[in-house]
Amino acid sequence: MPSERISFLVFARSVLDALEAVPLDYCIGGAVAVWAWGEPRTTQDFDLVIHLPGDRIRLLSEELEKRRMLVPPDILLDLLMQPEGDLPVNAIHLDSGFKAELFLLRLGDSFRAAALERRRLVDFGEPLGQVYVHAPEDLILNKIAYYRLSEQPKHIRDIGSILLMSGDQIDWSYFNFWLDQLGLRPVWDEVQAAVAALLR
């Protein structure tokens, strides 16, 4: 039986319950991760990086289905095996319409592997509890990358709030290394100017 409409936080907890039941290593990104390091904003999308070994694909599909999210194993396998691109697996809750975007760690993706290794455990309180989120510098790097693709101002606002509230926690040596490795320095110069204008 479909449940009554649930809150976004209850939905997010159900996604994490599915990942932990398999179990899988994960790291929360996007707007929810910003809650840990910057100014919270509303969202209906739950972004996560997950490490999904091939022998756990069917288990993940089954655990999501138990929680009314239909993600067939072949969809997971197809996206896991894609050599290029960065399309997430969309796990949409059948009752509420909330969406989890699952970014799968692929072989050779050294940045995402490093970010997953450096994840931080943060306590958001009930119902999420203690969860793993991107470190602030990894979150900013991802925000810069997505700003390059979309030029959406929400990324500028998120970066500005992270710098304002958690700037003293950023590992700038690590940040600058990956900024160059990912070819993001020209975009970072643009982002810094936009953030400075925002914070005036």
Describe this structure in words.
The protein has helices spanning 8-21, 30-37, 57-66, 73-81, 110-117, 136-150, 153-166, 172-181, 185-199; strands spanning 25-28, 45-51, 89-92, 99-104, 120-123, 130-133. The chain has 200 residues and is an alpha+beta fold. It folds into 2 domains: 8-134, Beta Polymerase, domain 2; 137-199, no CATH class. The chain has a 4-stranded mixed beta sheet, with helices on both faces. Strands 5-6 form a two-stranded antiparallel sheet. A hairpin with a 6-residue loop joins β5 (120-123) and β6 (130-133). The model has no long low-confidence stretch (mean pLDDT 93).
List keywords for this structure.
single chain, 200 residues, alpha+beta, Beta Polymerase, domain 2, two-stranded antiparallel sheet, 14% strand, globular
Please write out the topology.
Elements: H1 8-21, E1 25-28, H2 30-37, E2 45-51, H3 57-66, H4 73-81, E3 89-92, E4 99-104, H5 110-117, E5 120-123, E6 130-133, H6 136-150, H7 153-166, H8 172-181, H9 185-199
Parallel strand pairs: 2-4
Antiparallel strand pairs: 1-2, 3-4, 5-6
Helix pairs in contact: 1-3, 2-6, 6-7, 7-9
